[in-house]
Amino acid sequence: QVQLVQSGAEVKKPGASVKVSCKASGYTFTSYDIFWVRQATGQGLEWMGWMNPNSGNTGYAQKFQGRVTMTRDTSISTAYMELSSLRSEDTAVYYCARGGSYYKYWGQGTLVTVSS
Amino acid sequence: QAVVTQEPSLTVSPGGTVTLTCGSSTGAVTSGHYPYWFQLKPGQAPRTLIYDTSNKHSWTPARFSGSLLGGKAALTLSGAQPEDEAEYYCLLSYSGARSGFGGGTKLTVL
User: Fold this and answer.
1) Which residue of B has its CA nearest to A57?
2) Pick from A46, A50, A106: which is nearest to B101 by CB?
3) Of the candidates B40, B96, B104, which has its C-beta nearest A59's C-beta?
């Protein structure tokens, strides 16, 4: 069965970077895009961007351009989302989701807390 | 970047009908925006109810339906149940392979 398993919770200081992983199983990793979505504390859902694991091509929401980088390691079927220059407003649960299935498959979410 | 708009909150009586809408600052929402509707409950990952305007996943209760209405995407709940109390988010796709969520609608069943 399709599974997306994300890395554990992180606590970061303002100005630091965080890298969240999303390990895929149960399907061919390079066949479907990976999307990243977050929900900041007390806020709504935000679409952050996508990555094609086959080509490495990416597309980022304007809000995160310059601060987010989405990459992958196809040898271990894992996608990564790195967010830099963290600020308190980036405290959120970050989710990965698989494309090609109308957002049917989601990771469990990773809580990133930004605090001094 | 386009702004996607939703009603901040709505209330529906048990067994009643309510329609949530999703608009775009770029103009009328069309099928070309491939509208999605997600249900979000505390502590859970988002769950897709509707995709491509009106299509349902296998788990989507029959009481939910999606459509285009007056230049907006719409999610109609007919016969509301207590377990439908949640936040609902629409997602629209734009050119350049970008997408955006609305601000969400908090639905109360009361």
Assistant:
1) B97
2) A46
3) B96
Pairing of strands A68-73, B64-69: unpaired
- Residues in chain B within 8 Å Cβ distance of A106: 45-46
CA proximity to A47, closest of A58, A63, A31: A63
Q: pLDDT tens track of chain B, all 110 residues?
A: 799 999 999 999 999 999 999 999 999 999 999 999 999 999 899 999 999 999 999 999 999 999 999 999 999 999 999 999 999 999 999 987 899 999 999 999 99
Residue of A nearest to B4 (CA): A46
CA distance B43 to A38: 13
Alpha carbon B1 to its chain centroid, in Å, reads 20
How far apart, in whole angstroms, are the C-alpha atoms of residue B73 and residue B90? 8
Q: What is residue A13's three-state secondary structure?
A: coil
